[in-house]
Amino acid sequence: MTRSAPSATAAPEAEPTAPAARLVAQRGLFRGPDPVCPDELYTTIVSGAAERERTRITVQPFSAVSTDTYFGRFPASHWQRWTVVTEVTVELVVSGSAKIALVASDFRGETRPEAATDVRGGTDQLVTLTAKLDKFLDGGFLWVEIDTEDTGLAVDRLVWTVAAPETYRPTSVVICTFNRADDCTRTLGALAGDEAALEVLDAVYVVDQGTDTVQSRPQFNDLDNALGGRLRYLRQPNLGGAGGFGRGMYEVTKSGESNILLMDDDVLCEPEIAVRLSAFANRTQRPTLVGGQMLRLLHPTRLIASAEYADFNQLIPGQVVHNGLDDVDLLEPALDGNGEPTGQPVRGDRRVEADYNAWWSCLIPNEVARELGLPLPVFFQWDDVEYGYRARSRGYNTVTLPGAGLWHADFDWKDGDKWNEYFAVRNAMIVATLHSAFPPKQMARVITSRVARALLGMQYGFAVTMIKAAEDFLEGPRALHDGGQQAAADIRKLRAEYADTVAHPIGKLGELGLGSVPLIQAAPAPKSPRLVLLKRLAHLATGRSTHPVGAVPSVDSAWWHVSQFDKVVVTDAAQDAVRVRTRDKATTIELAKRVAQVARRIIAEGPRLQEEYRAAVPALTDKDNWERLYGLR
């Protein structure tokens, strides 16, 4: 059933409009939207003192500040490479006295002055500094530095502007949510509380697929009013991220011309991301997917990647491109070629190119969505990868824009042994058939290797999850008929049959007779994993083990260590529970035979399945198929 909030009766989405002569490409912000956001990601106090507010900074006498920070820099290289813009202007409204400089870096990380001016006793004085975007092709940023002497300076406004397009296309945000009503409410509140972000937004779609609904929250009506008639609230059965984001894409392309900004519900939202992605998308040379970057919510100074690609041969998404930043602390000094600190912040000055951008935040141009259709109905996992590579196959690039970021839950604090691994494996294989050579023997090796390691680690539920995923992949495109609802229910039921999938509170171990077990840490990782694998298999066959029982920290839970136990208590990655794994030779043999059969089928049937999946994409991604899944026809 589809139900709209009262705002759904508001005026229809706006058509592209004629903007002012200058387009705000990004704002200069001096603090984050939430106290947990580190101020140093926005502006740096080089010396002296300054008082930072969200859009205002007061620099005390004999002080220096710089916006050479993650959110403070302007990504000049990306603008030169991908847009029609040839110069950028930074505009400041200031009061007081100071030297204000516009500084650039190049792809080597070396800096140079672009422009500078002295302000003496100004009152609400407009200062403009301009830089040509002609020396940044391989990399580089721009930023502002302010130095005061005996008189301080207050900056009341700082914006980076570029020439505006003839017509400006607004953006519609699409948030897919499932039983994260409080998280989604906070995200809506962040957008509603930022006037500049609201100015670029035409609509905010919330596709609620849960039972604990966003609409049930007491602040829902206030948020609806604060969003100024932009909220479109939709309810539907749980069709995963693909179904939720796809519904928003469907609604936007059906009713208007706005671009589509997909955004997760469980983020700490920096509303500025809407401003930066929207501006960039309006100035690209041709329609381009523009993605935001992910900062780690539990470690808010860490960026997970500059840009990413998928390794189809290993069925692994989220690989960092060569020369890209890879899980770095943005406030630690960068290292030189010898591993020594340079004294300069981590910038990632060299421009790198993404193959796709994850849907924690990714803007898709309206015309791209119309041409490509909707996501593949794979429920969730790899839907964003597939769409990005499908766009590439049609000539539409993806740009991951530096400085357009938000905070998302850390992936390595989520335990991998969960039901959603079914979709991670099945969908990876499906997407690999569509966008890679899909060598059957290599695919069989990957699945067999993963299952073997799970069996050695006594993760029988995890092993059967992956086996079931591969088996359902072998069913061909008909496995996607219902959008994944039955598969999600089936895999949960299947996993419940295996005791090692149960997460136990640490206080309950006494009831299992495991209240006191020795903590046994791992030795260094083996230099020859394949030889160790063969050795562990031999021990399994002969019933040998090193430890009868023990406890193992999450960080030490690799298969080559856990496989030395008869029974082991392993801490979950989330650090809130443990799993108990017990050696079961009969189950190991049963599942080993099953994965061997799967491997043989992948090798034999892989080429045929690749043809079938590729042939099925147009029908699977067509709006008629999704209307059926949404119950709209």
Q: How would you describe what is shown here?
A:
The chain is of the alpha+beta class. The protein has three domains: 22-163, Jelly Rolls; 171-333 and 344-413, Spore Coat Polysaccharide Biosynthesis Protein SpsA, Chain A (Alpha-Beta Complex), CATH 3.90.550.60; 420-588, no CATH class. The chain contains 16 helices and 26 strands. Strands 1, 2, 3, 4, 5, 6, 7, 8 and 9 form a nine-stranded antiparallel sheet that branches. An eight-stranded mixed sheet has the order 12-11-10-13-22-15-23-14, sandwiched between helices. The protein has a three-stranded mixed sheet with strand order 24-25-26, with no helix packed on it. α5 packs across α16. The protein starts with 21 loop residues before the first strand and ends with a helix.
CATH class of the largest domain: Alpha Beta
CATH topology of the largest domain: Spore Coat Polysaccharide Biosynthesis Protein SpsA, Chain A
Q: What's the architecture of the largest domain, going by CATH? A: Alpha-Beta Complex
Query: On the 0-100 scale, what is the average pLDDT?
Result: 93
Helix content: 25-40%
Strand segment tally = 26
Number of domains: 3
Q: How does the overall form come out from the CA principal axes?
A: globular
Number of continuous helical runs: 16
Q: Major sheet: size, sense and barrel closure? A: 9 strands, antiparallel
Pick out the low-confidence regions. 1-19
Query: In angstroms, what separates the terminal alpha carbons?
Result: 12 Å
Proportion of residues in extended strands: 25-35%
